[in-house]
Amino acid sequence: MSRIGPAEPWVVREIGLPSDDAGHRQAESLFALANGHIGLRGNLDEPQPSGMPGTFLNSLYEVRDLTYPEAGFAFPERTETVVNAPNGKPINLTVGGETFDLRTGEVRRHERVLDLRAGTLTREVEWVSPGGVEVRLRSVRVVSFERPSVAAIRYSVEADAELRVDSDVAVDEAQPPPRDDPRASAVIEDAFVPVFHDRDLLVHRTRRSGITVAVAVTHLGPEGEIVTGPDRLRWTTTAHGSIAFDKIFAYGWDGLDQRDKARADRDAAARAGFDELLAEQRRYLDDFWAYADIELDGDELVQQGARFGLFHVLQAGAQAGPHPIPSKGLTGNGYDGHTLWDNESYVLPVLTYTHPACVGQALRWRHSTLDQARERARELKLDGAAFPWRTISGPECSGYWPAGTAALHINADIADAVLRYHAASGDDVFMREAGDELIAETAKLWRKVAYLDEEGVAHIAGVTGPDEYTALMDDNVFTNLMARRNLRAAALDEVSGHIAERLAVPYDERRQVHEQSAGFTRLDEWKSFADEDYPLMLHHHYLNLYRKQVVKQADLVLAMVLCGDEFTLDEKRRNFEYYEARTVRDSSLSAPVQAVLAAELGHLSLAHDYLAEAALLDLRAGGESGGDGLHIAACAGAWIAVVMGFGGLRDTGGRLSLSPRIPPRLNRLRFRLRWRGAGLSVTVTPEKVTYQVSSGGIEFRHYGDVVSLNEGEEVTFKLDPIDDRPAPPTPRPPGRAE
Amino acid sequence: MSRIGPAEPWVVREIGLPSDDAGHRQAESLFALANGHIGLRGNLDEPQPSGMPGTFLNSLYEVRDLTYPEAGFAFPERTETVVNAPNGKPINLTVGGETFDLRTGEVRRHERVLDLRAGTLTREVEWVSPGGVEVRLRSVRVVSFERPSVAAIRYSVEADAELRVDSDVAVDEAQPPPRDDPRASAVIEDAFVPVFHDRDLLVHRTRRSGITVAVAVTHLGPEGEIVTGPDRLRWTTTAHGSIAFDKIFAYGWDGLDQRDKARADRDAAARAGFDELLAEQRRYLDDFWAYADIELDGDELVQQGARFGLFHVLQAGAQAGPHPIPSKGLTGNGYDGHTLWDNESYVLPVLTYTHPACVGQALRWRHSTLDQARERARELKLDGAAFPWRTISGPECSGYWPAGTAALHINADIADAVLRYHAASGDDVFMREAGDELIAETAKLWRKVAYLDEEGVAHIAGVTGPDEYTALMDDNVFTNLMARRNLRAAALDEVSGHIAERLAVPYDERRQVHEQSAGFTRLDEWKSFADEDYPLMLHHHYLNLYRKQVVKQADLVLAMVLCGDEFTLDEKRRNFEYYEARTVRDSSLSAPVQAVLAAELGHLSLAHDYLAEAALLDLRAGGESGGDGLHIAACAGAWIAVVMGFGGLRDTGGRLSLSPRIPPRLNRLRFRLRWRGAGLSVTVTPEKVTYQVSSGGIEFRHYGDVVSLNEGEEVTFKLDPIDDRPAPPTPRPPGRAE
After folding, report:
1. Which positions of A are annotated as active-site residues?
2. Most CB atoms closer than 10 Å: which of A12, A397, A625, A679?
3. What distance in Å separates the CA atoms of residue A425 and residue A440, rounded to the nearest whole number?
4. Which fold has domain A11-265?
5. d(CA A501, nearest CA chain B) in Å
């Protein structure tokens, strides 16, 4: 849809203009700039053409009622939906009386560049108006990592004509109609009531959730006229030949001093100036890449996709601060802007090893919602905390409980993220203030929900695991193993310890494979794969999906990745082969996990394929993947596939282990990570691996052997050649082999 | 709530007036008159006080959109809801300028009598107005069984004052707000647009479903003035001292000639006159009771309740004709006026043996919806027909699929009803025209949905059985055994025959009981019974209910009743004991079935208790049971408990078997039934049973021995004494023992 140019190492370049609305939506997501606190979709400077407007402030949401055809006890009655905030981006241009609109006239050149090291979106346009005026336009947009509430645009235009710029802050922009897809967002129209307006500031409040938001703006450059009203602030300037200015705007919506905060942040940014904002941005990203970059010599496309993904993971998490990290980051309104389990299970692991400061914050956000999770547990007649399947501010917002509330594993996913973060960071203060309580409260739920049968085996019945093509199953292996970890870490009492050790791990003796959940391998097979059937959930009733052996996304395979020491190598091989044939990857969460286990089992080219699927999912999508926001977990998935897959990183029990290997199509592979303040870089070639410590001291295992390195040291090990095992001989689902 | 007087054999008498809205709602249901085609709730003659208005025409419904917080593929997007039709009941009275309103003045006497042999509701009132005028009012209401579209009211009033009667047809009456209960109906306000009005007729059309309804009215008696408008027709008469008249009204809403039909039916009824309507009604009911009555000497309360139930079963089914029989009959709008599986599994069996003519009609209605069921099967990627869990005109209207679409057993329930009707009636024409196709199309679904494992065992996975406190289970015994019967009857081909014989019947070897569904007996026990927790579904999330061994309603026990020859007596005993301890009877469908198996196993007093529960559920409810319509299946349940329970009637394989017994608290028990045109009466005492044939010849089994009797013959057998076995020693759920 978007015309993304050939792969370049550090930039993503769009050549030409999207040809339709879907293409615009896709490009707006790809070119979104965000810092975790605020996010600007990559809309053009001028309001039209546009796919979907989008200015997102983390946790600026509206409340909506949920109504059910047939409700049940404790079905959530309200949900939260991210709203499109007052938008500081629009810059309208008039050239000799003609509106600058790329749907008219002739577009001679249109190029947008997302620079992953500069942290900027640059746009260059050459356009001839219907009246024949040649126009050159250039803009640079930045959302500051250092100044969480600040965004800025440098805008310049040249043409041999009278030029007029109307630069706006726009409120309640028109929204496209909602898509007919359960993963899409509801549309919130007319979200705001005006509270206050001044020549430099608009203040609004959401109607039901009552959140006040202030946006302060200034224009640095020529003199301009300002017209302001309740729902618009417009700065106008005119000139002949050229106009250039910097637009700097800042938001306030947390706490009680929104106006003062927005104005102060804007003023500080304006005093620093646009060039300094760029310089800060570059320094911030240099620091990030120093510990996060991965290099993949030999696959330029995936190289670009992996960096693009890491950049967006950072954009989603960096300054999320006291708020959650939504599944779409701040790039779109998909999933209503909710955070789901992929935050803890996909995004936080990557940030734990690359940018750990924001992981503690993200988990403190979870902790801040603990009272709501306790209340939900009470409502469900459970103990401890029952964290929501999807939410913005803490309440359960899931409207289909078999694939929502029933996915109790969210509790264990949070505990696992806490354990990982603590092991990798050594942040004991966090544990005392939040982590220990999170682990204890999540564990209490498992102690209550599990029961012992008369043979002394513990069971967890009627829950849904990661695979959403089955639901309400007994003894989901992933859930049980993660609950075991959660219970062990909490060490609540003797009973919970007893349960932890005795939780069932269903195994099919006949087929010699684990059952994803009890009885799964005895279900009917899914026989009717057809290309046009994907994703299956949009073409088949759950009745049909749930009762068959068809797997939406890695579930048992994820258990084998995160709880690898609970399986023998032979079990992993047999299980992987069995589930490969039945996994249709209708979720973007699947490929990264399959990549990791494929790499562990020596299916290196297959792992490479799955890495590519994750890395290119949104960036080079065939369809409109990511139009309503990028798949941030899939963005994280590229790192997971490389570092956990080819790097063999495992952290079970708080110990760092690496088992590097390289797939045939790569010449050299390098990744970096942080571990308790130390920085480690790992360079892998077919023959050897070199570990270099840039700062601090580190101890880890290399293929099981302990390695200790001090700051500045490096060590090289020869690698035994690993035969690239072909993909398992069982056929993968037709249409899902590639 | 309603002040129902002491039990009388053939009437239900209310003494005094309900004291609140809930009491009015309850009484309006109890005193509803209906014939299956039209139904009038037992509202007072004057519009107020009132609980809920209700004039129901079978299959006069409006369409509503169903919206889901998170929709899935093939979730129904529309539903149907019964609407309150233009109401011919209201008669306003003014006495010396004062409105006759029983909430004012002094009510000296208020009595309503539902006469189960006359088929009338009679009301007698003595009231003193606030101004001191003494008023005597009497009304008799009838909904004609012989004239399906006709209702009539005989009204007389006496007082020493100027009297004024305004007799209305009222459209779009105000509705009470909806109750917060998933079993309640949606409220359809402003359902009608006016089409036409004349001095004797109103014609309206529903807004979305576009159903035209005409009501024609006439008043026989004194002269009156008529005022009519789009939404009201009012006949007014005045006199001093007394007024008496008959109001006769008729509806037309089927076919294209609604006006002519309503007028013609009204005119024919008016020509016959009110007395003749009463005489017809009495003849119709005499015929009914001759083959349907049950006599229970020694329990006057249950005697009354059982006859009350049978009367309402007849009222629900008699003239349902080309339309379905809703779960609430035409007594209220509960369940949105939908028909569910209890029609085929509870109501039709009773009518099959008591009033078979309307069973063929009811099953022909199912047949008329076959194309919709085929389309639904296609949508679900199944074969044959997938009949809807709940509907009025045929489409699936279930908005919670785990306890709706997943309950595939509805298909087998329909097939079973066809087989029973054919066996009992010998109606081969019906089979050729509808029955054979129903059996074949329902069976095709089972052939598709069942699969064979590598051991050659057939399974049906991911379905919901009768017990709605579990869902999406594998190999529900009831479903599998009923599917087996369906497949055997259809005899589609070798494959389906193979599947039928090999369908799994899960059995727990350790506990020596059948599993309601695979794995059920290994689930956690429900430990926290508390009185205030019932019904559990209104106090516990399904997450909690589904994962535990708590049973809403007879499920495996129903399988043992309907498919008794699939179980040994020992299995039945052990299973019954096991499931008694876990069945909370939160559905009115439970007690009748438990009564039958309890009686079979010799728990005669327990069976009597369950019979009483079914017979008295709505009639002598502690709470507001039945306020939005009677539980017609529970009404049928009294007959089921008596005839299948104490009579031991079984009809497996199309053979009639009886094994009569009598519980200790009864002196004598008599029931009647029809079998292939013959009429059989069965009289049971503790010592003996006497079979008498009133018409036709009949062959049946008495405790396994073949008995053949011709018209007018009778035979008496001594009965071996049956020890009344106490209830199973396992405790029944606390709060659910009585």
Report:
1. 468
2. A397
3. 20
4. Beta-galactosidase; Chain A, domain 5 (2.70.98)
5. 18
